Amino acid sequence: MNPFQIAMRAWTVLGAALLVALLSGLAVAAGARADWPFRKREAPLAERAAALLSQAIQIDTTVPPGGEAALAEAWREVLADADVEARVVPTPGAGRGALWARVPGSGTARPLILLSHLDVVPADPDEWRVDPFGGEIRDGHVWGRGALDAKGVGVVQLLTLIQLARRDTALPRDVILLATPDEETGGRNGAGWLVREHPELLRDAEFLLTEGGSVRPGEDHRPSVWGVTVTEKQPCWLALRARGTPGHSSAPTRDAAVPRLVAALDRVRRTETPIRVIPAVSRMFFQLAGLAAEEDRAGYRNLEVALSEDSPFRRRFLGSRGRNALVRDTVAITVLEGGPRTNVSPSVASAHLDVRLLPGGRCEDFVSELEEVVADPELSLEVLLSFAAGVSGTDTALYRAIQQTAAAREPGALVVPQVIAGFTDAHWFRDRGIAAYGFVPRWIAPADTRGVHGVDERVSIANLERGVETLLAILDQLAQLDHQATQP
């Protein structure tokens, strides 16, 4: 055997060894995946919830581009293992899809939908203490992008569905699980597309529960507050574009696009929108009056009058960004685009404005008002996203079920119908006459919500477990009310 043949023999043996090692590694990885606690029916609920969320975080569904179908398929497999009817519904866009699942009820009442979303916003690993897509489990928490918004929501709802499927007795209602893509960019190709193109998946549902509200733990002998979102501010996302004479920036022109845009944005920034107290906000603060500082309680109970006539109260109330955003339309300047190079004066410069309107406002009316503020014929405004926001009433069986569950689990807790400054996919369903509430049973202090769209997002394992148990209790309480409604 010549030296060349000896070398080729050696490379062949080495290649075979490497292939065996690679296949062995894949087998070990596959075995580890198969042994995850969420695949073991006998594993404790908390352990299964943590493992399921950890896996979900490791499946990167950042928008853009999304790729949510991979997570939808992973969850479909988990549900299939538990003998729950489930399927992945392709949605517009490569690699995008939604999860639909159902546990049948007896059919004596209309279905209830549990809604979450699969996509997440970007995360910069350099800003985090952990890998934002590592799904690390430590210190009693699951860490990573989506832990709160909203993969953690989906895990609680998914495990609730599995628990229901194991029971011998069905609820009066079908319980439908929807986990959709595209929520973080408006939901038009996610929940909005499903509602429009596949209304049969909703099966004439009466109720829906989704993100948007939670439980604020009581402190200093104060009761917990179960915040149930009944409506949301409306997005009116705009693109503001300025046009000007392009050229070399060494000889600036008076009508350059970037300075014209900056001047307009300064006028927008200085504009103060009027205060408007809608009935849902008035009702919310009336119910929170007992928790306010003593000097503010009367103002909370008559918010519109207090903001108009009580200057010290008005100053204190509006001093909170969160409260201020609930009594007026707001404008945030976000994306800026100008020239491609330092020495180039572009012909077009643009900015995105994140406008949030109180329910009942109209985007076209706000655009007209903003055009007067901008006051420049060389600037244009384009609507990027806009929809109206309906209000879900509180005189329903589901809302009463939440109230009764709160009273049983936390005597003295306040259940408050709230308005939030953000928006969710709930409006797509409210538009179809479904009573939609933003409520996830998890106990989170305001400071703990900073991870939502921020750094070091995490949720406690105890919250995941307690969330499943409490959501089941709400569904059981609703079943009792449904049963009572059918009695003569």
Any key phrases for this structure?
488 residues, alpha+beta, Aminopeptidase, Alpha-Beta Plaits, 2 domains, 38% helix, disordered N terminus
Give a quick rundown of the structure.
This protein has 15 helices and 18 strands. It has about 500 residues and is an alpha+beta fold.
Could you explain the architecture of this structure?
The strands form five sheets. A six-stranded mixed sheet has the order 1-2-6-3-7-17. Strands 12-14-10-15 form a four-stranded antiparallel sheet. It has a three-stranded antiparallel sheet with strand order 4-5-18. The model is unreliable at 1-32 (pLDDT under 50). The protein is 38% helix and 20% strand. It has helices spanning 3-34, 45-58, 69-81, 151-165, 191-197, 257-270, 279-288, 297-301, 303-309, 311-318, 321-324, 363-374, 397-409, 426-430, 461-485; strands spanning 85-90, 97-103, 112-117, 137-138, 141-143, 175-180, 207-210, 215-216, 225-232, 234-243, 247-248, 330-337, 344-345, 348-357, 379-386, 414-420, 435-438, 458-460. It has two domains: 37-231 and 390-485, Zn peptidases (Aminopeptidase), CATH 3.40.630; 234-386, Alpha-Beta Plaits. The longest helix is centred in the N-terminal third of the chain and has 32 residues, at 3-34. Helix 2 packs across helix 4 (151-165) and helix 9 (303-309) crosses helix 10 (311-318). It has 488 residues and is of the alpha+beta class. The protein contains 15 helices and 18 strands. It is globular, with a radius of gyration of 26 Å.
